[in-house]
Write a structure and sequence with these properties.
CATH superfamily of the largest domain: NAD(P)-binding Rossmann-like Domain
Radius of gyration: 20 Å
Structural class: alpha/beta
Distance between the termini: 61 Å
Helix content: 40-55%
Number of helices: 13
Number of domains: 2
Strand content: 5-15%
Oligomer: single chain
Number of strands: 8
Largest sheet: 8 strands, mixed
CATH class of the largest domain: Alpha Beta
Length: 307
């Protein structure tokens, strides 16, 4: 089956984590949505049985067909969405290529350096696919499929109606592959970097016994930001997604470095995101609303710095 025949009646996900499940949940609210959805996630190859079964349970809950390989997942799909961690993005695309239908749109939604996207685009287009650089410009919750997207590259114009048909909020950025991602990467210096900076501030302030005064002072300096609420949200995000965010920030550091700057802030953000994410801590909804509870939990598990 060619992609032109399949249209969006067959959709595939490479990676089936938070973003993929959010997009799919949103699509199912779009009138007339009836696509057959297939997914492949590398976690189903994990040596850990709990990890494998957990991801298969995700397929069942979402009512998607779980494929055993990436090529099997994309076979016959007119639209393929890659939503994997930044460090796996190029490899995941290359692995899927043998099953990619001619003319299929390959929506690379991964948070990668522009140079990584350019390399992947060459491989996808050479195989007969149509690569689209997608930058996801906000968290996928609560807006799901309506999360703002920027798309770029030579196939962006043809791809836009496909995304619109899925009810997605995609805007064309007039530029080559990598230009949308350059915007996302530059934005992430601030967004993920601020998370890391807040984490260091809150953890240091908590240990010193002064954090409430510090956050009150910040509220005076930046009125309306609500630092205590924001601190709780950011700590919870780093706890839950720190490892994935660290992978993205490595791509950000690569982007900055290739622009001729030393990526000092991006590299430092990697360290905090990775260190907290690796703790594997999770918070209940009640805990997630209180920065003090989250800070105490992180400090209780964070290894002491070696002198």
């Amino acid at each position: 089956m060619t992609a032109e025949n399949a249209g969006t009646t067959a959709i595939a996900f490479i990676g089936f984590g938070e973003a993929a499940q959010a997009f799919l949940a949103g699509w199912r609210t779009v009138p007339g949505f009836a696509a057959v959805v297939t997914a492949y996630d590398i976690k189903t190859d994990s040596p850990d049985a709990a990890v494998r079964e957990g991801k298969r349970a995700d397929y069942v809950r979402a009512n998607v067909f779980g494929a055993s390989t990436a090529p099997a997942a994309v076979a016959g799909a007119g639209a393929v969405f890659s939503v994997v961690t930044a460090d796996q993005a190029h490899e995941a695309a290359v692995a899927a290529i043998p099953g990619l239908a001619k003319g299929a749109f390959f929506f690379d939604c991964d948070s990668c350096a522009p140079q990584t996207k350019e390399r992947t685009a060459k491989a996808v287009d050479a195989a007969g696919g149509r690569y689209v650089d997608v930058a996801v410009m906000a968290p996928v919750h609560p807006r799901l499929h309506r999360t703002p997207l920027l798309i770029s590259g030579p196939h962006a114009g043809a791809a836009a109606p496909v995304l619109a048909g899925l009810g997605m909020a995609a805007e064309i950025h007039d530029g080559p592959v990598g230009s949308s991602s350059a915007i996302k990467m530059t934005r992430s210096i601030m967004m993920k970097g601020l998370e890391a900076l807040v984490a260091e501030c809150v953890l240091a302030g908590t240990k010193a016994g002064v954090i409430e005064i510090v956050l009150d002072s910040l509220d005076d300096t930046y009125p309306g930001f609500d630092w205590k609420k924001r601190a709780a949200h950011m700590l919870e995000r780093v706890m839950t997604h720190g490892v994935r965010r660290a992978a993205e920030m490595r791509e950000v550091a690569l982007t900055v470095g290739l622009l001729g700057f030393f990526p000092a802030m991006s590299r430092a953000s990697v360290d905090w995101q990775q260190a907290i994410g690796e703790l594997g801590l999770r918070a209940t909804a009640e805990e997630a609303a209180d920065y003090r509870v989250l800070a105490d939990r992180i400090l209780a598990h964070l290894p002491a710095k070696e002198s």
